């Protein structure tokens, strides 16, 4: 198993033209990178850059391009490979169905999680699709908060994909504290959207995402990058000066 993990890590590094390193301090603004006063100065300066919708759209494209370059997403494989979905252990609960699921993000690397879907399609002809992203903790996908919110959305008619951050839950092909963790996790989120919109029971025009803490960070990232997201609810991770403490 350790040999396989090592091979996968080196393969990912080769894809991204990134050396295998343990530290990333020179690549990320982590933790309380600014003081609150410093952040206030930056925010006031940026606020002068846009006063109209057109100004903001121009600014948002700069942010989007910066995210792609910073994460090296443009060096990841094209998102056109089969999902090779594995779905099993179907359980019918009170108003919803939950299943174990794994889909292939890129050849040989899997996204693991649970798929929640409604028993009744009412009131939708096709269900909204929701990405349910978790933060750091002791395998939070298995915890009450992620299961409760995912089940509640399914009862209301949505198809929900609650998926692991890399290194958590069943996603143990690589460790979580990987120098390119943000790249892989964000790519995985794009692939989850790809999968949801490919399903015949999901309305591709009704895609939402929500997550807390590290999942809130991921919610912000994927919303900035992917216009298919129509509703975005990041929770306990919106700050002018604190950038998160994890790669």
What's the topology here?
Elements: H1 2-16, H2 36-47, H3 53-71, E1 86-92, E2 96-106, E3 109-118, E4 127-133, H4 144-155, E5 159-163, H5 181-198, E6 202-212, H6 214-225, E7 229-235
Parallel strand pairs: 4-5, 4-6, 6-7
Antiparallel strand pairs: 1-2, 2-3, 3-5
Can you put this structure into words, describing what you see?
The structure is a single chain. The protein has 6 helices and 7 strands, in the order H-H-H-E-E-E-E-H-E-H-E-H-E. The protein is an alpha/beta fold and 247 residues long. Helices cover 36% and strands 23% of the residues. The N terminus is likely disordered. It has a single domain, classed as 3-Layer(aba) Sandwich (Rossmann fold), CATH 3.40.50. It starts with a helix and ends in a 12-residue tail after the last strand.
Cross-sheet strand order for the largest sheet: 1-2-3-5-4-6-7
CATH topology term: Rossmann fold
- SS content category: alpha/beta
Q: Element order, helices and strands?
A: HHHEEEEHEHEHE
- Count of helical regions: 6
Instruction: Categorize the overall geometry.
Output: globular
The figure for the number of domains is 1
Separation, N- and C-terminal Cα atoms: 24 Å
The share of residues in extended strands comes to 15-25%
User: Which regions have little confidence, pLDDT < 50, spanning 5+ residues?
Assistant: 1-7, 16-25
Per CATH, the class reads Alpha Beta
- Helix amount: 25-40%
| CATH architecture assignment name | 3-Layer(aba) Sandwich
Biggest β-sheet strands, sense, barrel = 7 strands, mixed
- What's the gyration radius in Å? 19 Å
| Average pLDDT | 89
Number of strands: 7
